[in-house]
Design goal:
By secondary structure, the chain is of the alpha/beta class. It has two domains: 117 residues, NAD(P)-binding Rossmann-like Domain (Rossmann fold, 3-Layer(aba) Sandwich), CATH 3.40.50; 162 residues, Dihydrodipicolinate Reductase, domain 2 (2-Layer Sandwich). It has nine helices and 16 strands. It has an eight-stranded mixed beta sheet with strand order 8-11-12-7-13-14-15-16. Helix 5 packs antiparallel against helix 9. The radius of gyration is 20 Å and the shape is globular. The two termini are 12 Å apart. The model has no long low-confidence stretch (mean pLDDT 96). The chain binds nicotinamide-adenine-dinucleotide (NAD). Nicotinamide-adenine-dinucleotide binds next to helix 1.
């Protein structure tokens, strides 16, 4: 089997998650890690026994590295990915694909022009929970999907995060931080979108850092902390999506899809597994559906799928085009909230191929 040699740029929080799960996939091998802060790169290399910690430039000039995983902060996603593509590497970006739709589009165009692959998180839809939910819908278990709800609501991260400023700056907020999981899941389940409408506000402007050295310091909230939207899919299904950092507690399920024959409860899209429940009657019993998809994936599965796709000559599933469609929808929500008008997506979306059933852990098609 071909082993794709990978370089990771950005050795912060989420890199540990990628490095922990990468060894599950025999088709990829992390050959080097890099960060602006060399001490972070060295620390991760030591912790996960990666042969090389180096600068970004050294990583990009290493001819053995075929694919770069970009785990830097959102505002650096564009420049790091473009630099890697200019060095002839395939790139997989963490979410969001870029800070703006225009930057994301330029990345997609560059990959196309250079004949390189561009991938983008979230790839949680490759997990057993989301795949089984898609299968249930595709097999007609709920009839025709007519509506749905998706809720990501919390009080915000400042109680536990020691440096939460970026969550409340433009490019942050609950929509850009957590919305990608929900939007990617909804697109994967229901297909392309016709239009979105939204209302958004800064509902809780007074916030204080709750932990770490800056505990007690006031936060500046620049971007909406509550965004309520309605998505009309091309199929006609109408889905309500609320993302909020202004809700202390609630009892809504993460995602429910309502069909003409039954309702479906979809597991948290910020995870890979979870039970999919089906209910056919009002006040009826919610029953788990049987599934035969590989469980236990974590971050790195999208990278492994992309590496396998390059060598097997198929499309990769967590694609940059798809991540751009998500970024486009997030911008559309804010545009609609500002203008009071419905906004149509500018980026077309096509559902990726489903994962095959019955794969062994680490196996790719
Ligand atoms: N933390 C999480 O649980 C989590 C979960 C899912 C997705 N993400 C996404 O992953 C990305 C990284 O998040 P994080 O929490 O690991 O952030 P982080 O701040 O902990 O780490 C980012 C790292 O990138 C480095 N970096 C920044 N700019 C760079 C550049 N130009 N070149 C090289 N290195 C650079 C920083 O020095 C830092 O070490 C973000 O896009 C975030 O949205 C994070």
């Amino acid at each position: 089997m071909h082993k794709t040699r990978i370089g990771i740029i950005g050795c912060g929080n989420v890199s540990a998650n990628y490095l922990r799960h990468a060894p599950l996939f025999p088709g990829i091998e992390v050959a080097a890690v890099a960060d602006l802060d060399m001490s972070r790169a060295r620390e991760r290399a030591e912790q996960f026994e990666i042969p090389r910690a180096c600068t970004v430039e050294q990583l990009l000039t290493d001819p053995d590295i075929e694919l770069v995983v970009n785990l830097t902060v959102p505002k650096a996603h564009y420049s790091v990915a473009m630099g890697a593509m200019e060095a002839g590497k395939h790139v997989f970006n963490e979410k969001p694909l870029a800070a703006t739709r225009d930057e994301g589009q330029r990345l997609v165009d560059a990959a196309h022009e250079k004949g390189l692959r561009l991938g983008g998180a979230p790839e949680t839809f490759l997990g057993s929970g989301q795949q089984a939910a898609r299968r249930a819908i595709d097999d007609g278990l709920i009839g025709r999907p007519v509506a749905g709800t998706a809720f990501m609501m919390s009080p915000g991260p400042e109680a536990w995060h020691p440096d939460p400023d970026f969550f409340y700056q433009y490019g942050g907020g609950p929509l850009f931080d957590m919305g990608p999981y929900y939007l990617m899941s909804l697109l994967h389940l229901l297909g392309p979108v016709r239009q979105v409408t939204a209302a958004a506000g800064i509902q809780k402007p007074d916030r204080t850092i709750g932990s770490g050295e800056r505990a007690g310091e006031a936060l500046v909230v620049e971007t909406p902390d509550h965004i309520a939207g309605v998505i009309t899919f091309e199929s006609g299904a109408i889905v309500t999506l609320v993302t909020s950092f202004a809700v202390r507690a609630h009892r809504h399920a993460p995602i429910e899809i309502y069909g003409t024959d039954a309702s479906l409860s979809v597991p948290d899209p910020n995870g890979f597994d979870g039970e999919v429940l089906l209910c056919e009657q009002r006040r009826g019993e919610w029953k788990p559906i049987a599934m035969n998809y590989c469980q236990g994936y974590g971050r790195s599965v999208g990278v492994a799928d992309m590496a396998a796709s390059i060598h097997n000559g198929r499309e990769h599933r967590a694609s940059g085009v798809q991540a751009l469609a998500v970024l486009d929808l997030m911008e559309a929500f804010l545009e609609s909230a500002r203008s009071g008008c419905a906004v149509a997506p500018r980026v077309p979306y096509q559902r990726p191929a489903p994962m095959p059933e019955g794969l062994e852990p680490g196996q790719m098609d």
